[in-house]
């Protein structure tokens, strides 16, 4: 048990180091970007009509003259004390902005995560069981096709078919335009989320299905499956006793690992559907040199992705008896 | 009346439990590009398993021994074809019958712990996932029979000690009452003492009336424990002899068997040159022909399986 504690402690330290690294990388990228915050956010025309003092004031606001090291350190100092700063674009606390955006994105990503996980798992099992026969060829072909399809392109196609041609679903945003916040129904929100969630699910399925298929083939060719057949176990008994057991562990790891992909995908997909989520906020912050917001989002996303991987590792140790009991014995 | 009928049937029950005749197993394969070909791995194989006796099929690695077990159980891979006749208890063993009998009357004892599901506890594994009370009791009884504690049922395969492994593997055969036990290399890499102990388990099963088909490459162990020894070479059977025939070289019938005998440490440790031919390059006649000093024209044609001195042999030169 003590060994387990040390192991978890190590993982947490690694996560902290990773977060520091990620924040530095994000900061350096913004600092060296050729985007001039004043030109982007205020506009060439407006800048031209401003007095020197006004421009100086704005420059101070965007931190143009400051040395990057000083800016990073002052941000990091505040962050450690729990202050994520104020978003330069939204003029609100970064934590507040992230809270709102995350709430929008979270259920979108959660729906895509669950859907792609379940569908991918089932497709993978069916394909692996029928290795080489037509269901396998169909599923494999589909997965490879989808895996090589960019998420944004798929999003555009879905948008064209379901929003433009058929008109069944809204073109974008997360709520209808011109309706008061109090007048927005749950159904409105769901309708706006369907297409982005679907895009994310479809792209997520292929990865899970292909990996599960691979593992399934390994299970099918294993000695214990041969022995199960030799012992006259029925198909259902084999699936229940051996297949699900041996395939859920890798699937679980994969599922938690796929959080990063869904997260990454959501940036593009939210952009296309103008969905006001975390992904879109990240793009806005990056292009508008809103350093506090960008760093805040980066840190939160990295923490969530890392948390997913950590959860997979921890669950593996809890579920797999070879790790759990093996560790207990030492 | 009924009792008499049962008795009658038991009397009529043949001593031969399993009778395999002219068995061949071939695989459909792609041979370079898209050309399909048949790779014959077992051909014209004859084996008889008798009730209450252990028959050891002895052969070198790569001679297709395991496939024999899989053929009897009906668990050959999908690209394999089986031809020939297998009779079980006087009736043809069709695929439907195999499916009904495997795991119940015909059981396999695997060669290693790797044949157990690594994520399933021993107890549930022995009872094939069944959860009823009777099954649980039976598992406890089986474990006890091999002086294993009931707690062993709660262990995972990786937690078993080397000594427990073998007993657990044999235990898997006993959930129902087996009539035919097929043991595929049950003693790989075991030291003689432990291997003998494993063989005692099979002797017990035979004493209870089951027929045992023991597949092994260990001739010495087979001589000690089996009643019959079938010599397997190049995908076919060359000789079927009583284990006692192996006491003296002159009692043996086939040149290959004699070569095996002479290769044993106590009989001179003499090796003969050459290796077993690969399945795709098997000669039409005697597979041992290319290595045999007595090989003649006759040996290049298919050699019949004939009975000589209470055993059987596939050799043109063996005299009465």
Describe this structure in words.
The complex is a heterodimer of chains A (330) and B (320). Chain A is an all-alpha fold. Chain A folds into two domains: 34-83, no CATH class; 95-329, MetI-like fold. Chain A contains 15 helices and no strands. Chain A has helices spanning 2-32, 37-41, 44-48, 52-62, 68-80, 94-129, 134-147, 151-165, 186-220, 223-230, 235-257, 259-272, 278-287, 291-319, 321-329. In chain A, helix 1 packs antiparallel against helix 14 (291-319) and helix 7 crosses helix 9 (186-220). The mean pLDDT of chain A is 82. By secondary structure, chain B is an alpha/beta fold. Chain B has two domains: 2-105 and 176-313, P-loop containing nucleotide triphosphate hydrolases (Rossmann fold, 3-Layer(aba) Sandwich); 113-172. Chain B is 27% helix and 25% strand. Chain B is built from nine helices and twelve strands. Chain B has helices at residues 2-12, 65-73, 95-101, 122-126, 133-145, 162-171, 192-207, 219-225, 255-263; strands spanning 16-30, 36-50, 54-59, 80-88, 91-92, 106-109, 180-184, 211-216, 228-233, 236-242, 306-308, 311-313. In chain B, helix 6 runs parallel beside helix 7 (192-207). The longest helix of chain B is centred in the middle third of the chain and has 16 residues, at 192-207. Residues 5-13 of chain B have low confidence and may be disordered. At the A-B interface, helix 10, helix 11 and helix 15 of A face helix 3 of B.
């Amino acid at each position: 048990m003590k060994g387990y504690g040390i192991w978890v402690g190590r993982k947490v330290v690694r996560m902290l180091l990773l977060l520091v690294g990620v924040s530095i990388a994000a900061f350096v990228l913004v600092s060296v970007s050729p985007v001039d915050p004043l030109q982007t956010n205020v506009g060439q025309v407006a800048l031209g009509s401003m007095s020197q003092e006004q421009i100086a004031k704005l420059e101070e606001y965007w931190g143009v003259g400051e040395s990057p090291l000083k800016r990073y350190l002052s941000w990091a100092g505040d962050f450690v004390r729990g202050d994520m700063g104020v978003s330069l674009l939204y003029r609100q606390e970064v934590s507040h902005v992230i809270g709102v955006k995350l709430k929008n994105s979270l259920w979108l990503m959660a729906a895509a995560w669950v859907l792609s996980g379940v569908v991918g798992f089932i497709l993978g099992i069916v394909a692996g069981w029928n290795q080489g026969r037509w269901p396998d060829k169909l599923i494999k072909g589909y997965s490879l096709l989808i895996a090589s399809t960019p998420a944004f392109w798929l999003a555009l196609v879905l948008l064209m078919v379901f929003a433009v041609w058929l008109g069944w679903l809204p073109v974008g945003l997360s709520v209808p335009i011109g309706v008061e916040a109090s007048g927005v129904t749950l159904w409105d929100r769901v309708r706006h989320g369907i297409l982005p969630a679907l895009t994310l699910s479809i792209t997520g399925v292929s990865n899970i299905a292909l990996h599960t298929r691979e593992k399934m083939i390994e299970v099918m060719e294993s000695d214990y499956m041969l022995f199960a057949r030799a012992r006259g176990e029925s198909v259902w008994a084999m699936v229940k006793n051996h297949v699900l057991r041996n395939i859920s562990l890798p699937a679980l790891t994969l599922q938690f690992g796929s959080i990063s992909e869904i997260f990454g995908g959501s940036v593009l997909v939210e952009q296309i559907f103008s969905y006001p989520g975390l992904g879109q906020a990240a793009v806005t912050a990056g292009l508008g040199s809103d350093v506090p917001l960008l760093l805040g989002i980066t840190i939160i996303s990295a923490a969530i992705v890392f948390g997913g991987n950590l959860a997979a590792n921890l669950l593996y140790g809890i579920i797999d008896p070879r790790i759990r009991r093996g560790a207990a014995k030492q | 009346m009924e009792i008499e009928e049962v008795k009658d049937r038991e009397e009529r029950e043949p001593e031969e439990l399993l009778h395999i005749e002219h068995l061949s197993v071939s695989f459909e394969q792609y041979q370079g590009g898209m050309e399909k070909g048949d790779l014959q791995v077992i051909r014209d194989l004859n084996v008889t398993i008798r009730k209450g006796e252990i028959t050891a099929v002895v052969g070198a690695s790569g001679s297709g021994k395991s496939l024999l077990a899989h053929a009897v159980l009906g668990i050959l891979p999908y690209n394999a074809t089986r031809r020939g006749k297998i009779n079980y208890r006087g009736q043809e063993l069709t695929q439907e019958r195999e499916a009904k009998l495997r795991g119940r009357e015909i059981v396999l004892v695997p060669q290693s712990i790797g044949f157990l599901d690594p994520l399933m506890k021993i107890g549930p594994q022995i009872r094939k996932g069944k959860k009823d009370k009777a099954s649980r009791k039976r598992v406890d009884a089986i474990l006890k029979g091999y002086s294993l504690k009931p707690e062993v049922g709660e262990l995972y395969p990786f937690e078993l000690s080397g000594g427990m492994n073998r007993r657990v593997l044999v235990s898997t055969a006993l959930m129902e009452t087996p009539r035919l036990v097929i043991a595929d290399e049950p003693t790989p890499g075991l030291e003689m003492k432990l291997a003998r102990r494993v063989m005692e388990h099979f002797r017990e099963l035979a004493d209870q009336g089951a027929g045992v088909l023991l597949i092994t490459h260990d001739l010495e162990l087979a001589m000690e424990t089996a009643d019959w020894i079938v010599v397997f070479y190049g995908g076919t059977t060359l000789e079927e002899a009583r284990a006692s025939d192996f006491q003296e070289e002159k009692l043996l019938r086939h040149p290959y068997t004699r070569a095996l005998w002479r290769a044993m440490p106590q009989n001179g440790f003499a090796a003969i040159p050459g290796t077993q031919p690969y399945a795709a390059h098997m000669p039409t006649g005697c597979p041992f022909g290319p290595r045999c000093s007595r090989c003649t024209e006759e040996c290049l044609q298919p050699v019949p399986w004939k009975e000589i001195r209470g055993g059987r042999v596939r050799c043109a030169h063996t005299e009465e």
